[in-house]
Amino acid sequence: TRQKQPNHVHLGNQLKNRSANGTSSSRHPQCSTRLKVVRGFAELHGATQNVGGLEQDDKVERLADIVIEKCIDFYCIQETRLYGNFRRQIEPSCDKVSPCLFFHHGQETKIDQRSSGGVGILLSPSGQNAWKRAGCPDAQYGRLVEGIARIMGLELHFLDRCNKVLKYFVISAYHPDLDRGEEEHTDFLGALSNMYARAPPGIKIVSGENMSAKLGRNIQKERENPSASCPLSKITGPFGTHKDSDSRGESV
């Protein structure tokens, strides 16, 4: 018997070697996660990463190379430190490969020394086909949080092996750092909820987020004392360095 597919798939920000970690400070490249579609046996490849700035052109070109090398359909990117909303083609260094397409959301000006916002979604050629199949929709931009751009979404339509259209709303989100106040964090969660609500009816949400939180995990490791443990155990996976969630992870 096949289980019904969930309507919301979450890409954690610590996906390493296809495992999920509950914290969110890493800026190392994240391995793509496969979303197996039951009915048509199609596979979607998505990744998420805090890039720590894309001010240098060769850095975003390297991301395009990763997208091609790893056969990633969509790459959710956080902390670009770029400004403005734009769509741009990115040429990979590989020969005879079609360019990738980069959607970006950023505030227009720098707010303060800590305002390293900016989020993006990078599409491979296969991801661009899914975007065109959806009718080339504009990216959806979340409202600014304390003047910083942190949330965006994009609708993509993929085909399974039976040519059935599979509709997804891909979100890239950059949570406030731990040193930001709880009021700003709460404001961000409200803005993120609004973005979820903007997904078209019946569409599946795939969310790649840099969370700045401990989500915990649902399986005890050897020599650990059993615990009623993480209140999020029904939705977290078995991987991660933290067995329990923190208050920010629970609010997320």
TrEMBL record:
Residues 14-29 have a biased composition (Polar residues). It comes from the Eukaryota. Residues 241-252 have a biased composition (Basic and acidic residues). This is Endonuclease/exonuclease/phosphatase domain-containing protein. Residues 1-29, 219-252 are annotated as: Disordered. Gene3D superfamilies: Endonuclease/exonuclease/phosphatase (3.60.10.10). InterPro entries: Endo/exonu/phosph_ase_sf. It comes from Helicotheca tamesis.
